[in-house]
Amino acid sequence: xxxxxxxxxxxxxxxxxxxxxxxxxxxxxxxxxxxxxxxxxxxxxxxxxxxxxxxxxxxxxxxxxxxxxxxxxxxxxxxxxxxxxxxxxxxxxxxxxxxxxxxxxxxxxxxxxxxxxxxxxxxxxxxxxxxxxxxxxxxxxxxxxxxxxxxxxxxxxxxxxxxxxxxxxxxxxxxxxxxxxxxxx
Length: 185
What we know:
Layout lengths: L3 E6 L6 H12 L2 E3 L1 H12 L9 H19 L7 E5 L6 H16 L2 E8 L2 H7 L14 H11 L9 E4 L5 H12 L4
Parallel strand pairs: 1-3, 1-4, 2-3, 4-5
């Protein structure tokens, strides 16, 4: 059976990592949360989720992400993966989406895009929650509003599963994804 590459996409605070943890527990897939790559650079820099992160630090995180994607490509055939991403309308958003699609194709894996949607007011409410601090995640609601105004959210592709995480608990969202993906995992 072919491996599965599930790609959870959503804005900061939409529950990507939380849903991914539940989905990994259900399926045995490896969770490759975007902070797995970012934190290797963000933590030494001292990112606090409030102050902006300079472009040169983002460039270093991109290098780590490139290495992580290459390691994911080399994974054994019996390893399925769950990636999480915030993809914007900027050119880097569609390019990042294509990189994960291409990785799945190179592995001979089934690609399952999942768009986690959530009203902006709910995202802003979630950002200051204490659990976001430990992973240097965005915690500034005003910064979120500016980010969404400036960069937006990449619209879901036609093959995406769309889930409103304000209306569904993370465990239920994971069950929904697993049921849509069927026997793929």
